[in-house]
Write a structure and sequence with these properties.
The chain is of the alpha+beta class. An 8-stranded antiparallel barrel has the order 1-3-2-8-5-7-6-4. A hairpin with an 8-residue loop joins strand 6 and strand 7. Helix 1 crosses helix 9 and helix 6 runs antiparallel to helix 8. The longest helix has 15 residues.
Length: about 250
């Protein structure tokens, strides 16, 4: 099982300058994303530095080696989590991911209509649509958030409850997530259960509205509350937007 690392980076340089430096190394990340905002915040695990640092970039790289020394001058702070990811997800990931980020015409499912009469909760911490999250999604979707989003999930299971979460994952893949274009494209076991985390996952959605459509729906929330919520002793979800190859290429010219 290949070992990968999730790196959250707080930069001391503009993103374009960091990308130029990254392109000058031999490192080939699986994912390079701009950090957008927290959807769910951790309650006990890794709260510092996760909640005390402004993150700019997320990298997922196919190695547990430290980042190249040439990048250090551009990084103010970092948080790293190593994970073993199945070969079937890593092999040909670039081609698979490109199809998700740039789907064929007709390849993105329509919204189900759940946002017309959404199920709303007071907080988003149980992965529900709160008034605050709903307002942000509406604004984001009309501005920079018109494309795909990638949600970084960190998971710590309650004792004896992993099987419940697997039931949730099965339903996500077969119906409640996939019918909105949701795809858990990277999933891995945290090596050494660093900082108490058990697993990490990166979930793709065709747009932030597809993610919101899922949260707003009764079919999703029935499964969420039956299997997911009680199975986790802690979790967090960070919304990111993967940087286009065009932008990364442009940065390499700096």
């Amino acid at each position: 099982m290949p070992a990968c690392t999730v790196h959250l980076l707080s930069l001391s340089s503009p993103i374009s300058v960091f990308l130029s430096a990254l392109n000058s190394t031999r490192l080939e990340p699986l994912v390079t994303s701009k950090v957008i905002r927290w959807i769910i915040t951790p309650t006990t695990l890794s709260t510092s530095p996760l909640l005390t640092t402004q993150w700019h970039i997320m990298l997922i790289v196919p190695t547990t080696d430290p980042l190249p020394a040439s990048l250090e001058t551009h990084i103010r702070a970092s948080f790293s989590l190593p994970a073993g990811v199945p070969s079937r997800l890593v092999d040909n990931f670039a081609a698979t991911n490109a199809k998700l980020l740039r789907p064929d015409k007709g390849g993105v499912p329509a919204l189900t209509g759940a946002l017309g009469a959404p199920r709303v909760a007071s907080s988003a911490q149980s992965l529900e649509l709160s008034p605050t999250l709903q307002s942000w999604i509406q604004d984001f979707s009309q501005q920079e958030g018109r494309g795909a989003v990638s949600m970084l999930n960190l998971l710590a299971f309650a004792e004896g409850k992993k099987a419940d979460y697997l039931q949730y994952g099965k339903a996500f893949a077969e119906s409640i997530g996939s019918r909105r274009g949701g795809n858990a494209k990277i999933v891995g076991n945290v090596i050494g259960k660093k900082d108490g985390w058990d697993e990490m996952a990166l979930a793709h959605y065709p747009s932030i509205l597809h993610f919101a459509d899922m949260l707003a729906s009764e079919d999703y929330q029935e499964v969420n509350h039956k299997y997911r919520v009680g199975s986790l002793r802690d979790t967090c979800i960070l919304c990111t937007s993967e940087l286009s190859e065009e932008l990364k290429l442009e940065s390499s010219k700096l």
